[in-house]
Here is the input.
Amino acid sequence: EKQLVESGGGSVQPGGSLRLSCLISGFTFDDSDMGWYRQAPGNECELVSSLTSDGILHYADFVKGRFTVSRDNAKSTVYLQMNSLKPEDTAIYLCNSCAYWGQGTQVTVSS
Here is the structure.
C-alpha cells in the first residue's frame, strides 16, 4: 500500500519556524518526484514547492527565500523547512507524489 504521512505542523508566532516531514512507503522513493501543497480555508490548493528525483527544485513566489525543500532518500522522507512564517502561511500542508497524497498537517501562524 502506497502511503505518505506528514508530520511537524503546529502553531507558531509570526517570524517563527517549522519543519514538516513526509514519510513515504509502498513505492520507490528514489525515483519519485515530490511536492508540497497547501490549502487554506476558502482557498484552492496551491503548490508550495517541488523536488524532482534528480534534484530539480521549484518554489512558489510567495515562499521563495523563506522555505527550503529537501529529501533524504535513505529515510524515504521529504522535508519542508519553513522560516520567517507569516499569518498568511496558515493552511493545511499536504505532501504529494503523482496521484498519491498524505492526509495533511495543520500549520497555524498567529500572534
